[in-house]
Design a protein that fits this description.
Layout lengths: L20 H12 L10 H8 L6 H32 L3 H28 L3 H5 L1 H4 L1 H12 L14 H22 L1 H12 L4 H31 L6 H25 L9 H18 L14 H4 L5 E4 L4 E4 L10
Antiparallel strand pairs: 1-2
Helix pairs in contact: 1-4, 1-10, 3-4, 3-8, 3-9, 4-10, 7-8, 7-11, 8-10, 8-11, 8-12, 9-10, 9-12, 11-12
Length: about 325
């Protein structure tokens, strides 16, 4: 058995025995991080949003931009899972994880609905940012452009060249979209939370970041398994192409960082957001067996701490409860 197949049918009775235990572990980690946006109170967020003295106009714009980017990016990722990846990744335990991830993408989309409704935002304005904000549109268009070939309903995995095209899709959504394009936004929102501003939205972004860390881990394991099972595809040209794609992605994310938060936040400038993106990109490259490019140190060591949510307040019961954690995950 291999993880890819042209036969989109699977026998539901063949979930056992499992071949790829890493896929099962990622599924269990996802279940352990289960959450819904309504669990998190946004009363203080509403008060701060309406107050003329708490948030600057630049901070409000930055929040809106991140809600706008993530709302469309999550939908694009969900579409890619359901319409392309699930079709060609036919191993049962891997598909079990993909179903779990699709659910999590739906929860993330629901999060932005919850934020818009609670803060009284104009959903048309938020959800159309992928068309109206150039640096958001460029990021979305960039990833969509990597997947045009396999969106063709007649696309099949017949040759090594086909598998290379599919691999580029997986890199595009797991490594670039979820592993790079999300992280300047994460850093902005969590930096704001560290100032005790918009804490409810910040907590939701922390949970999303935990989910995305698992998505990224699954994607990298999928990439490495495809490489291992198809020895002829991981050529020097393919490695250079993927490295170049990631470098271009970093450039897009840097532009977004300056556009979304041009004046920085308290104690943080936009150059540091760019450094963080470089640091993240190096780790993504190394995770799939490529050489790092930037050699940049992590300017935000607190980002790892920001997702250590072993305890959260249950706002419905007004008591502290234990939340499950997703094991030893690589949050950055």
């Amino acid at each position: 058995m291999t993880i890819l197949s042209n036969d989109s049918k699977t026998d539901p009775n063949k979930i056992l025995p499992m071949t790829y235990m890493w896929a099962r572990e990622h599924y269990k980690d996802g279940v352990a991080n289960n959450w819904t946006p309504e669990e998190i109170s946004m009363q203080k967020d509403v008060e701060q949003w309406k107050s003329p003295d708490v948030l600057s106009d630049i901070e409000k714009r930055m929040i809106l931009w991140n809600l706008g980017f993530f709302s469309t990016a999550e939908s694009l990722t969900a579409n890619n899972i359901v319409l392309t990846v699930y079709k060609h990744v036919t191993n049962p335990e891997a598909r079990q994880y993909l179903l779990r991830q699709a659910y999590e993408e739906a929860v993330h989309t629901d999060t932005f609905i919850y934020c818009c409704d609670t803060l009284g935002l104009d959903p048309e304005y938020i959800y159309n940012m992928y068309e109206t904000i150039p640096s958001i549109k460029e990021k979305d268009d960039y990833v969509v452009g990597l997947t045009k070939s396999i969106m063709d309903p007649n696309f099949e995995l017949r040759t090594d060249e086909d598998i290379k095209i599919f691999l580029q899709d997986v890199v595009g959504y797991y490594v670039i979209m979820e592993g790079i394009f999300f992280y300047a936004g994460f850093a902005m929102m969590l930096a704001l939370k560290r100032q005790n501003k918009m804490v409810g939205i910040g907590e939701q972004f922390e949970y999303i970041m935990r989910d995305e860390s698992i998505h990224l881990a699954f994607g990298c394991d999928l990439i490495n398994t495809i490489k291992e099972e198809n020895k002829g595809i991981w050529t020097s040209d393919v490695q250079k192409n993927i490295t170049d794609l990631i470098i271009q992605a970093v450039d897009h994310e840097k532009k977004y960082a300056f556009d979304a938060c041009p004046n920085g936040l308290l104690g943080i400038n936009p150059e540091q957001f760019c450094e963080y993106v470089e640091y993240i990109a190096d780790r993504r490259l190394e995770r799939i067996g490529l050489d790092k490019v930037y050699g940049t140190d992590n300017p935000f060591p607190w980002m790892s701490q920001s997702v250590d949510l072993s305890k959260e307040k249950n706002f419905f019961e007004t008591r502290v409860t234990e939340y499950q954690t997703a094991g030893s995950l690589d949050w950055d």
